Amino acid sequence: MKPFQTLNPVKTTLLVALIALTAACGYSSKTTPPVAGTMPTIAQLAPNSATSGGAAFVLTVNGTNFGTKAVVNWNGVAQTANTAYVTGSQLTVAVPASAITASGAISVTVTNPGTTGTGLYGSGGTLPETSSAMTFIVN
């Protein structure tokens, strides 16, 4: 028997078909990227200011398109544990006294988190979206 015997035509055809099917079933061809999520908007902060060194308070954020898992960001830091969903147009966030110890402008945004895909191999889903900033003033 020679080391490299020639395969018969049937075996060759089956081998080529198997290789083609394996290559065509690649995982990357079955996934779709996430799409844009719902963009939240902030219309009003209540209150819109506080006194430096003051007591802790609850900030009400009014706007539109707030998801049930939306999070208020205080100066760029997500307030995951402190944010409460009220409605699709209102969130509240507990602001600790330690967050208003110095005077200045605080950037407040809202983020709707992304969702994981539910399609074949986890494809699809949505991207997280963050609102434009509104300024909270600490006097």
Textual characterization of the structure:
The protein has one domain: Sandwich (Immunoglobulin-like). Helix content is 12%, strand content 35%. The protein contains one helix and ten strands, in the order H-E-E-E-E-E-E-E-E-E-E. Strands 2, 4, 5, 8, 9 and 10 form a six-stranded mixed beta sheet that branches. A four-stranded antiparallel beta sheet has the order 1-3-7-6, with no helix packed on it. A hairpin with a 2-residue loop joins strand 4 and strand 5. The mean pLDDT is 86.
Low-confidence stretches: none
Instruction: Give the beta-strand count.
Output: 10
Number of separate helices: 1
* Biggest sheet architecture: 6 strands, mixed
Helix content class: 10-25%
Q: Compute the gyration radius: what is it?
A: 27 Å
How does CATH name the architecture?
A: Sandwich
What is the chain-wise order of helices and strands?
HEEEEEEEEEE
CATH fold-type name: Immunoglobulin-like
